[in-house]
Amino acid sequence: MTILLTISLVMFDCTHLFPVTLTAKWQANAESALSPALKSWLFDSGSLTARLKAHCHHFEVVVIGQAEQVCSEQEACQYIPAGEAMLVREVLLLCDGKPQVFARSLMPLSTLTGDEAFLGELGNMPLGQAIFNSPYLTRGEFSVAKFSPQSAVGQLAQQLSLPVQEALWGRRSIFFLHDKPLAVAEVFLPQAVAYQAMEASA
Hints:
Layout: H1 2-11, H2 36-42, H3 48-53, E1 59-70, E2 85-95, E3 98-108, H4 127-131, E4 137-139, E5 143-147, H5 152-159, E6 168-177, E7 180-188, H6 193-201
Antiparallel strand pairs: 1-2, 2-3, 3-7, 4-6, 5-6, 6-7
């Protein structure tokens, strides 16, 4: 397992691309444009980490980068305003060595206090594994967006030797731990199991 993790870190070293960012027009009511299979992934309120683990033998997280930044106008929301200091974390979620998801988390520094301080030092631990174990977790509604091959995450996929032939789908939601917010956006990369399920149901 240690050898596989080392290989993955070398193969998917994208630290020079940090931050990838996710600029998009997030929509809360785009369900009609989605297949039932893809919708089941985008609007699943459970742990994405747990669901991906159920589809592979070996799951791992590769950290692209983590740094303190100020929330931009494009990523601001009702709970995380523009200009707020936050910790940005970008990772790849891999199943059996294959990149499945790019995830970007926005954690206000005011959230990383008290019981939540450990979230700033996750390393390669999945964020989902950490927060879904908390009895104080609540989750807001989902919004979804499409990303073109020319987008930053589309270019990331190409850097990972994943040809982007169609738009990539992503989702975003706000989590609350002890009523303190953090935003998580996840984009399913080409050849992810979410798309395979969509093709199987077509």
